[in-house]
Amino acid sequence: MKKWLIPVIxxxxxxxxxxxxxxGFNNTAVxxxxxxxxxxxxxxxxxxxRNDLIGNLVKTVQGAADFERGTLTxxxxxxxxxxxVTIDPSNITPEQLAQFNQAQGGLSSxxxxxxxxxxxxxxxxANQNFxxxxxxxxxTENRINVARDRFNASVNPYNQHIKTFPNSVLAGMFHFQELxxxxxx
Length: 185
What we know:
The protein is built from six helices and no strands. The relative contact order is 0.15. The protein is mainly alpha-helical. Helix 1 packs antiparallel against helix 2. The chain is 79% helix and 0% strand.
């Protein structure tokens, strides 16, 4: 065997090993990020379900003619504001999550005021549609919490994968960025 062939073979083996490592890193990072993106879609879906239920709840409550219009207007405005805030799931930043959380928090606050003021209306509290919507809304709030927890659980392995050495070197080269966790107020 020729002496010059040994270094060439060694270089080819090292290059192939680096290539396989880079491909493995990239494919794993893409899969983990897609899992996080899907989990964020589930969070948005749960919030959309809540927004739809709130619309039905407002329509039911509007049937009570003497109900406070200001409270309903606050809920309608908060719902519109909450639905206008969107996040790009491929690049979730703490600032975007804070803005999203603030809009959803405003909606939760307005909804709480609506449900408290309903206590003064016995006819409305006895309305079967209202009771069913209120029950569905409670279940949806639980779904939202589970979806947020699952999103955070999916972000963790992705962030760990791209932040650990030597993967962090490739993450910078391939422009993989850390995803933000959902933090509730």
